[in-house]
Amino acid sequence: MQTMKKIRAALDFSWNEASLALADENDQVLASEKILLSGHDASTLPERLEKALRTLNADFSSVGEWTVGTGPGGFTGLRVASALVIGLAYGAPETRVRGISSAAGLARSAFSGKNYPEKVLVLFDGRRSELLAYGLTLKNGSYLHNGYTAVFHTPEELEPNLREYSCTALEKDREAIAGFAPQAEKQVVFTPSINAEELIFNDPENFSASPTDLIYLRAAVFVAPRIPRQI
C-alpha cells in the first residue's frame, strides 16, 4: 500500500463510546468515527482502525504518531486503548506514541468553534451522588492539567468552582449533574462525544506522557486482603 507520511492517529475509549481519528501533518482530519461499544467489548476496534486506514490506501505501518486518551474515565476502556495502541506500534521504533488526557479532548470538543475559555473544569458522574472534577488551563492553544482534581459530595463544594471555571461534561452525565446541582447544569457546556482528532491537536509536539500514564480520579476498586483460612 502507498505510505502516507505522516498519518497521525488517535483513540479514546474513556467510556463506552470509542472515538478514533486520523489526521495529516497539516491538521486536516482524514477520518473520524464514534463507536458505541456495549459492555466495553473492544474486539472490533482493530478492524475499525484498519478499515479507516484502508480508505486512505494506507495501513498501520503508515501511522507515524499515535495519541491515546488517558482519562479520566473507565478503568477497563482506558487500559484496553493503551494496550491496543502500544501493541500496534510495537516493533516500529520510529513511530511516536503518547498519552493525552481525555479531559483535554472533551474540553476542545465542547468548545470547538468558539473561543476556548482560559480555565475549564471537566465534570464526570462519580456515582454515589458525587461529581468528579478535573481542572485544565489553556496554554499556547492547548489544554493542560493545572493540578486541580476534586470529588464533590455537595453542591456547595462545587459552587465556588462555577465562578472560577467554565465547566463542561459529556451529555451522558447531564442527568447526574442536574440531580446533583440543578442550577449548575445551566452553566455546564455539554458535548455528546470526545472527538479523537482533538487529542491529536492538543499540545501536538509533546510526547513526554506515556499512554500507560492513566488518570483515575478515584480508585476503581479496593478490596481488603483476606486472611487465609487456617486448617
How would you explain this protein's 3D organization?
This protein is of the alpha/beta class. It has two domains: 7-101 and 194-201, 2-Layer Sandwich (Nucleotidyltransferase, domain 5); 104-191, Nucleotidyltransferase, domain 5. It is 26% helix and 30% strand. It has seven helices and ten strands. The strands form two sheets. The chain has a five-stranded mixed sheet with strand order 3-2-1-4-5. A five-stranded mixed sheet has the order 8-7-6-9-10, with helices on both faces. Strand 1 and strand 2 (17-23) form a beta hairpin. The longest helix has 15 residues, at 75-89. It is globular, with a radius of gyration of 19 Å. 37% of the residues are buried. The mean pLDDT is 92.
CATH class of the largest domain: Alpha Beta
Instruction: Give me the CATH architecture of the largest domain, please.
Output: 2-Layer Sandwich
Structural class determined from secondary elements: alpha/beta
Quote the distance from N terminus to C terminus: 64 Å
Kindly report the name of the CATH homologous superfamily of the largest domain.
Answer: ATPase, nucleotide binding domain
Radius of gyration: 19 Å
Number of domains: 2
| Topology-level CATH name of the largest domain | Nucleotidyltransferase, domain 5
> How many β-strand stretches?
10
List the helices and strands and how they pair.
Blueprint (H helix, E strand, L loop, with lengths): L6 E6 L4 E7 L5 E8 L8 H10 L8 E7 L5 H15 L6 E5 L1 H9 L8 E7 L5 E9 L2 E11 L2 H10 L1 E5 L3 H7 L1 H4 L2 E4 L4 H6 L30
